[in-house]
Amino acid sequence: MKQDRKLSSLEQEIEANLKRVYEDVAKQEVPDRFTQLLEQLRQADKPSTESSND
Amino acid sequence: MTDPKDEIVEHLSAMRAFAMSLTRNSALADDMVQDALVKAWTKIDSYKPGTNMRAWLFTILRNTYYSHHRKARREVADVDGEMAASLAQKPDHDGRLQMRDFNRAFDQLNDEQREALVLVGAGGFSYEEAAETCGVAVGTIKSRVNRARKQLVEILQMSDDEVMEATDIVTTGIVTNQKNVA
C-alpha cells in the first residue's frame, strides 16, 4: 500500500515534469532570429521592385 | 482572406518546445526550427486553411528531425545535459534534482516514444492529432504513450531508490564535516 501511494505520486510527478520540460521552453521569449527570419522570408516574397537596398 | 503565413509566428514558441523535446539540445533545436520555418514557408500551399496549423508545422518539424537532425543529435555532446549534471546540487525531493532525474529518464526513451508522449502529455494534442502529425495509426500513438509512461516509471523508481541512498550518504557526510569543522 505504501508502494501504491509511491507509484501514483511518481506518475503525477512524471506528468508534471513532462509539462514543465515543454512549458519551460514554450514560455521563453522567442529569439529574434526567428521573427527576423519570417520577416526576411516575407521580404523575399515581395516583387523585387519593392525591396529596398540596405 | 487572411494569409496562413501570418499565423506561423503564433506557433514559434510551441515549435521550439517540441523541437527541444525531440533533440534535447537547444542549439540543435533552434537550427531545426529554422529549417522547418523555411520549409513551411515555401510549401505553405500544402497547408489547408482552417485545419490545425500547429499539427501541420509539427509534422514538418519532425520530418526535419528524422531526415537531418537525428544523426546530428547522436554526434553532438549533450551539452545541456552535461551542464545540468555537473552543477552541484543538493538532493531534495521537490526541486531541481528531481527534474534532473526526470530529464535523464526522459532521454532514455526512444524518439518515437518521446514525441508521442510530448504531443499528448504536454502539447495538448489529442491522440488523433498526434497520430496524424506522426503519420501513424491512433492505436500506435496510444501504445507508444503507454509504453513511454511505463518506462519512465520504471527508470524513475530505480533512480528514486538510488537518490534515497545518496541523500543519506551526502547528508551524513555533510553532518560529519560540520562536526569536524566545529
Descriptive notes:
- The complex is a heterodimer of chains A (54) and B (182).
- By secondary structure, chain A is mainly alpha-helical.
- Chain A has one domain.
- Chain A has helices at residues 2-26, 32-45.
- The longest helix of chain A has 25 residues, at 2-26.
- Chain A starts with a helix and ends in a 9-residue tail after the last helix.
- The mean pLDDT of chain A is 83.
- Chain B is mainly alpha-helical and 182 residues long.
- Chain B has a domain at 1-87: RNA polymerase sigma factor, region 2, helix turn helix motif (Rna Polymerase Sigma Factor, Chain: A).
- Chain B is built from eight helices and no strands.
- In chain B, α3 (53-75) crosses α7 (127-134) and α5 crosses α8 (138-181).
- Chain B starts with 11 loop residues before the first helix and ends with a helix.
- Chain B: Residues 10-74 form the RNA polymerase sigma-70 region domain.
- Chain B: It comes from Marivita cryptomonadis.
- Chain B: InterPro entries: RNA_pol_sigma-70-like, RNA_pol_sigma-70_dom, RNA_pol_sigma70_r2, RNA_pol_sigma70_r4_t2, RNA_pol_sigma_r2, RNA_pol_sigma_r3/r4-like, WH-like_DNA-bd_sf.
- Chain B: Belongs to the sigma-70 factor family. ECF subfamily.
- Chain B: Keywords: Sigma factor, Transcription, Transcription regulation.
